């Protein structure tokens, strides 16, 4: 393969050989000398007062080395870190808590005590020997009931469960709605539930902490998406200086946002190791993962849209209630406010958008970023609203979308929510998807099937999301990304990225980028990540930002080193640096191509130094921090076709088309992989997945026997295509694709189900029984 | 950590060996066959036996054979053997048909017919199928060997007619009468893939194409695997057509103690029992 | 305290004799005692299939098998799938070629399950592959490229001169 073709080529991944042979090292694969094992005792109640804890029997159990409760952590372990505490209450301590529950437990799975023992079996056995006297309390489970004055309170001292109330004046939007109605337009409204989900990466969380007393250094291996942020916050939590903590993120078996967090168990394993002077491992069980790792989504949305009789949307009014769960994790309090509200305009030119928001604590696991993090909710709201408008006006949903799309020439465009979109061609993606599926013919087929009494539905979803975050001030820490690049004497390029890929394949795409820029074979490039001792300060992998932000840092590092190499080549060729050209791995003098030195020769000269001209600093190394000045806005259209078994209510997806635009694609094979996986997660939400708590706070979905994970047999072959609308927000022209599938899929499936049943809306997940009930209701109504 | 509590392990080399171990340890012992019902319960510490008697190595209990007019299946025969058995495909096709829908290929490699029957989980498929086939369950104790009809064997959720000192050794079936069709239908829950409701149907026609005998059982929907007597009664003597199959199937959930949980309400399970029953009867009829 | 048992197990062609607690799960025996960490634990309730290995030539979920049950048995794990050191089994090649993995955590189990599938059905249809992998959960790939990889492996096994199923079986 020609090197120039490296970018944009579907080469297979460089990560894979270790993964397909079982040689990859995940956290649980680590074995350190003298390693002890930690197990966590968790609350069996949703809400209860802890009256007494007796650990004596557990401590005496052979093989148990320590048992710790909240009392033991006093003055040693600080509160669980929160990135951006919001006023008025969270800044005053509401929802903040230590690593182990103190006084009360507030959700099923809340950690109460830990056992450290010689092996994992003994640690597990000793959990049964800890005696806790609980006084069960009524639980606040239903979010809207939790907002009522008589609701059981999680944090009594605040007198409410509502953490943030954001209700701007409605005068302007009310006028828009009134005017629209007065002019013969329509107003549609509905209440959408965006249910609670368990991110469920196949590898649960895990930590190995090894505190070296002699060096006063804590080495911590964690299955995390954010090695540096973890290092920084954990150091603070443990009262250590940053240089005393080294975080290593080994192979990570999926994250989907749930490992973009700093968890109690990281501090607990570290504390145990510091106390006992031996390494301590903790590996989360699946039932712990489903109970105590953050959950995603869980919003209730009250949505109203006004449109002219011709279908032009004039205003959107949305009230979001965000269920925070029992306490704040890293981004818990800001998901709805920072990511749902700004994206409510979707792909559309809507002149007036009003949004309000309540965030509420409940006796459930904390919610936080889950693939899409607030944007799927926004997309679901606006896409379902567009379908409601179409239905009200008896127009085709695709047609209503096209009518309201922002036009390519309008970009860059600031929508009514204030978000500044970079570029887009929304009609382009819609047209392509409709063409692939032969939309008009499909509608004919649907008509025929309906006449036969069959239930077939078509759902269209045009999504836009915000990625590549973000400009200064977006978060309490700058959301830049770093790249350190070193070219060794042999000409090998080593890239140390602050990103922390865990399945996305940047060891391949970043190498492709470097290969193309330097004109050297990909085998000559190594991409390293996930170790705070060798990679520069970084931000990690989440929010579909790794290529757009981390990739750009890598690209800029190649440009800087190229410049230095030109200077060195110039001195080697006795020419002026401005006359040096660089092509196909060769530095040459412009106009005299025979006078050239290779990339490797320049690398050798730079590193051995003796031949370097005076004044040129030896070595080839640079560190770049790229901080984007604006965000990217990937988009696309998904079309889903479902058929429903009328007798059982079971939906079957018969066709699925996805046309995505993530800007320029570095490796189309990997882009398609991200889209496939995203679709299945989006469909999973639409059809099956749901975390369910009983009214008393018991978790009813704490194994995969009860939490439905999508499996292969439930899907057709997805038909993918793409458009390419570059962005000028970064020099690569890339936008991001990690979450696109998930964001686009859910409303497409929901729309298809509603269309099949000929109803305006039904809430997710669209389980067979719920669909069956609607079929029965409609039958009875006839 | 999801690991079993400690226990002592005994590997039985023969049925006699297993019986004497069982006698020795009594209530404190559990029999381990393939382990796909017991081990998950032990890992969640819902079961904490002090002694495990592993009968998995008793090769003599894993077989499928025709013995005169009877088909006999050893208790330790894994589902995959049932699924792939030419003899069963020919003689009792409902068994391979059902086996192929249980769990997944890995589970079917370990899970055994006897283990499933002894566990008597109302959500599992095989108890209902064995009952529909009027299978006979052979159990041994140090006292004697006895045969229990499937109808008498399943007493309720996780309860059977097995005495504490007995071991299930084999299951016997009469070959199907002429003009008989069989089918198993189920609606699966999307998480565990157990049945929300399932139906096993064995239909025999007479020379006039009328239903001579019907054996219908319901799985998944209720607290116990049950025979749908009302459906059977409604079928026998009829020349089966769409209408009378439907009206017979409407009795599928009569007298059942239906389950209601996050995977299906009582009402849904009742209606789905009717749907799968109609489908199973219809399929069985096609196969006569 | 319960009595430990001595077991003899042949793993990837090599015989091991070990003393184990009766309750030790096969997956922990392989991972913690033999250091064969390619076999993973994903769910503990035998839903996900990350722990699939071959036991006497048939795929099993090693989180639901006791190590003592494997006494006298042959086990093949992902580490022993390739016919020789340094080479890849056609299934491994196909998963790589078709981008049938992302985070890689489910991959060893997925490959071991696919191995069993192709052993009993060398020419599976797309639907048969999807059905055959119902005991394996992948959260990353959406399964599409896994299905392609199994199709690809099926082709590779037909065109290779070797017997459809390799050693250690």
Short description:
The complex is a heterotrimer of chains A (782), B (288) and C (169). By secondary structure, chain A is an alpha+beta fold. In chain A, 29% of the residues lie in helices and 24% in strands.
Outline the secondary-structure elements:
The complex is a heterotrimer of chains A (about 775), B (about 290) and C (about 170).
Chain A lengths: L15 H5 L15 E7 L5 E7 L1 H5 L3 E6 H4 L30 E2 L5 E7 L2 H8 L3 E6 L6 H4 L15 E5 L4 H12 L3 E12 L8 E7 L4 E6 L4 H12 L6 E4 L15 H13 L3 E4 L2 H7 L3 E12 L5 E13 L9 H6 L11 E10 L13 H18 L4 H8 L8 E2 L5 E2 L4 H12 L1 H13 L3 E10 L16 E7 L5 E5 L8 H13 L6 E5 L16 H28 L6 E4 L2 E4 L2 E7 H10 L12 E6 L8 E10 L6 E11 L6 H20 L31 E4 L17 H18 L10 H14 L1
Chain B lengths: L7 E4 L3 H11 L3 E4 L5 H6 L7 E4 L9 E4 L2 E5 L4 H6 L1 H6 L2 H6 L5 H6 L2 H7 L6 H7 L3 E5 L4 E5 H4 E3 L2 E2 L6 E8 L5 E9 L6 E11 L5 E9 L6 E2 L1 H7 L6 H8 L16 H21 L2
Parallel strand pairs in B: 1-3, 2-3
Antiparallel strand pairs in B: 4-5, 5-10, 6-7, 6-10, 8-9, 11-12, 12-13, 13-14
Chain C lengths: L4 E7 L2 E7 L5 H8 L18 E4 L2 E4 L12 E3 L13 H8 L9 H14 L5 H7 L11 H16 L10
Parallel strand pairs in C: 1-5
Antiparallel strand pairs in C: 1-2, 3-4, 3-5
Helix pairs in contact in C: 2-5
- Beta-strand percent range of chain C: 5-15%
Q: Between the first and last Cα atoms of chain A, what is the distance in angstroms?
A: 65 Å
- Round the mean pLDDT of chain A to the nearest integer and report it: 96
Uncertain residue ranges of chain A: none
Shape of chain C: globular
- The quaternary structure here is heterotrimer
User: How much beta of chain A, percentage-wise?
Assistant: 15-25%
Structural class given helices, strands, pairing of chain C? alpha+beta
């Amino acid at each position: 393969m020609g090197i120039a073709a490296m970018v944009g080529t579907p080469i297979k991944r460089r990560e894979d050989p270790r993964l397909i042979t079982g040689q990859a090292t995940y956290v649980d694969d680590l074995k350190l000398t003298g390693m002890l094992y930690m197990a966590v005792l968790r609350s069996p109640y949703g809400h209860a007062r802890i009256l007494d804890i007796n650990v004596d029997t557990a401590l005496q159990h052979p093989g148990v080395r320590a048992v710790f409760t909240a009392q033991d952590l006093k003055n040693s372990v600080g509160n669980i870190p929160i990135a951006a505490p919001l006023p008025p209450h969270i800044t005053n301590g509401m929802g903040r808590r230590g690593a182990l529950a103190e006084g009360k437990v507030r959700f099923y799975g809340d950690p109460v005590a830990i056992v450290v023992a010689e092996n994992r079996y003994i640690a597990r056995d000793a959990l049964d020997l800890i005696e806790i006297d609980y006084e069960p309390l009524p639980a606040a489970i239903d979010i809207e009931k939790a907002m009522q004055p008589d609701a059981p309170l999680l944090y009594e001292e605040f007198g409410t469960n509502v953490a943030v109330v954001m209700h701007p004046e409605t005068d302007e939007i009310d006028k828009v709605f009134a005017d629209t109605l007065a002019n013969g337009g329509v107003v549609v409204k509905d209440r959408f539930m965006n249910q609670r989900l368990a991110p469920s990466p196949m590898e649960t969380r895990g930590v190995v902490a090894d505190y070296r007393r002699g060096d006063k250094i804590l080495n911590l291996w964690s299955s995390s998406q954010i090695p540096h942020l973890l290092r920084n916050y954990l150091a603070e939590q443990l009262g250590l200086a940053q240089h005393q903590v080294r975080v290593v993120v080994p192979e990570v078996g999926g994250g989907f946002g749930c490992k973009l967090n700093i968890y109690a168990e990281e501090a607990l394993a570290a504390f145990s190791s510091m106390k006992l002077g031996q390494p301590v491992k903790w590996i989360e069980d699946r039932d712990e993962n489903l109970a105590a790792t953050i959950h995603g989504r869980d919003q209730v949305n009250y949505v109203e849209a006004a449109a002219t009789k011709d279908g032009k949307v004039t205003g959107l009014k949305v009230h979001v209630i965000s269920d925070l769960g029992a306490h704040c994790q890293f981004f818990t309090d800001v998901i709805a406010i920072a990511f749902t509200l700004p994206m409510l305009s979707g792909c559309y030119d809507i002149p007036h958008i009003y949004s309000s928001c309540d965030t509420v604590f409940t006796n459930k696991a904390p919610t936080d970023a889950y693939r899409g993090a607030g944007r799927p909710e926004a997309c679901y709201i606006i896409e379902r609203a567009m379908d409601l408008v179409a239905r009200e006006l008896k127009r085709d949903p695709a047609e209503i979308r096209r009518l309201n799309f922002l036009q390519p020439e309008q970009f860059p465009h600031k929508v009514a929510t204030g978000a500044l979109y970079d570029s887009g061609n929304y009609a382009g993606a819609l047209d392509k998807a409709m063409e692939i599926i032969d939309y008009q013919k499909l509608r004919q087929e649907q008509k025929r099937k309906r006449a036969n009494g069959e239930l077939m539905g078509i759902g269209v979803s045009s999504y836009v999301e915000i990625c590549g975050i973000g400009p200064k001030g977006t978060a309490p820490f700058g959301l830049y990304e770093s790249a350190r690049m070193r070219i060794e004497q042999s000409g090998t390029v080593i890239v140390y990225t602050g990103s922390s890929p865990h399945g996305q394949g940047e060891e391949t795409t970043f190498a492709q980028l470097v290969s193309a820029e330097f004109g050297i074979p990909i085998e000559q490039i190594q991409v390293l990540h996930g170790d705070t001792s060798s990679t520069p300060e970084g931000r990690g992998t989440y929010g579909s930002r790794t290529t757009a932000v981390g990739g750009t840092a890598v690209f800029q590092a190649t440009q800087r080193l190229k410049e230095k190499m030109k200077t060195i080549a110039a001195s080697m060729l006795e020419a002026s640096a401005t006359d040096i050209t660089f092509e196909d791995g060769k530095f040459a003098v412009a106009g005299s191509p025979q006078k050239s030195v290779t990339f490797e020769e320049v690398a050798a000269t730079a590193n051995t130094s003796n031949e370097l001209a005076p004044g040129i600093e030896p070595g080839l190394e640079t560190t770049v921090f790229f901080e984007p000045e604006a965000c990217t806005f990937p988009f696309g259209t998904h079309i889903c076709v479902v058929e429903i078994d009328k007798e059982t209510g079971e939906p079957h997806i018969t066709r699925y088309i996805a046309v995505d635009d993530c800007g320029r694609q570095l490796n189309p094979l990997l882009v398609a992989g991200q889209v496939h996986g995203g679709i299945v997660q989006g469909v999973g939400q639409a059809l099956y997945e749901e975390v369910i708590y009983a009214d008393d706070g018991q978790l009813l979905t704490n194994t995969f026997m009860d939490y439905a994970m999508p499996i292969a047999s439930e899907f057709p072959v997805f038909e993918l295509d793409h458009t390419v609308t570059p962005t000028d927000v970064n020099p690569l022209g890339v936008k991001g694709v990690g979450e696109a599938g998930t964001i686009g899929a859910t409303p497409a499936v929901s729309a298809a189900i509603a269309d099949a049943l000929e109803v305006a809306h039904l809430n997710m997940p669209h389980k067979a029984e719920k669909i069956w009930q609607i079929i029965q209701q409609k039958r009875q109504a006839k | 950590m999801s690991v079993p509590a400690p226990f002592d392990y005994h590997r039985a080399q023969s049925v006699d060996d297993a019986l004497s171990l069982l006698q020795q340890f009594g209530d404190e012992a559990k029999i381990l066959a393939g382990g796909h019902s017991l081990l998950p319960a032990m890992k969640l510490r819902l079961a904490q036996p002090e002694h495990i008697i592993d009968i998995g190595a008793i090769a003599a209990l894993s077989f499928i054979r025709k013995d005169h007019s009877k088909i006999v299946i050893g208790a330790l025969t894994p589902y995959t053997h049932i699924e792939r058995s030419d003899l069963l495909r020919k003689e009792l096709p409902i068994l391979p048909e059902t086996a192929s829908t249980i769990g997944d290929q890995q589970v079917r490699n370990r899970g055994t017919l006897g283990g499933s029957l002894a566990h008597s989980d109302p959500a599992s498929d095989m108890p209902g199928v064995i009952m529909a086939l009027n299978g006979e369950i052979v159990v041994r104790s140090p006292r004697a060997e006895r045969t229990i009809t499937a109808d008498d064997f399943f007493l309720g959720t996780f309860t059977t007619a097995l005495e504490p000192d007995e071991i299930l050794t084999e299951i016997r079936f009469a070959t199907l009468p002429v003009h008989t069709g069989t089918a198993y239908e189920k609606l699966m829950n999307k998480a565990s893939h157990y049945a929300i409701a399932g139906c096993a149907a064995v239909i025999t026609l007479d020379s006039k194409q009328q239903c001579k005998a019907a054996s219908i059982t319901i799985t998944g929907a209720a607290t116990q695997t049950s025979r749908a007597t009302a459906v059977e009664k409604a079928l026998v003597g009829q020349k089966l057509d769409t209408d009378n199959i439907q009206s017979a199937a409407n009795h599928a959930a009569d007298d059942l103690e239906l389950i209601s949980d996050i995977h299906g309400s009582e009402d849904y399970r009742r209606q789905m029992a009717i749907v799968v029953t109609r489908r199973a009867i219809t399929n069985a009829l096609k196969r006569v | 305290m319960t009595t430990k048992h001595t077991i003899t197990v042949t793993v990837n062609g090599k015989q091991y004799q070990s003393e184990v607690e009766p309750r030790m799960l096969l997956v922990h025996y392989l991972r913690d005692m033999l250091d064969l960490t390619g076999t993973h634990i994903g769910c503990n309730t035998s839903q996900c299939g990350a722990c699939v290995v071959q036991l006497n030539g048939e795929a099993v979920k090693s989180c639901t098998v006791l190590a003592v049950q494997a006494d006298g048995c042959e086990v093949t794990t992902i580490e022993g799938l390739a016919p020789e050191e340094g080479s890849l089994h056609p299934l491994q090649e196909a998963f790589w070629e078709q981008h049938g993995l992302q985070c890689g955590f489910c991959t060893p189990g997925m490959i071991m399950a696919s191995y069993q599938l192709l052993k009993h059905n060398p020419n599976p249809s797309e639907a048969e592959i999807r059905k055959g992998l119902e005991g394996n959960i992948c959260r990353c790939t959406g399964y599409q490229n896994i299905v392609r990889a199994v199709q690809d492996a099926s082709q590779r096994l037909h065109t290779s001169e070797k017997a459809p199923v390799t050693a250690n079986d």
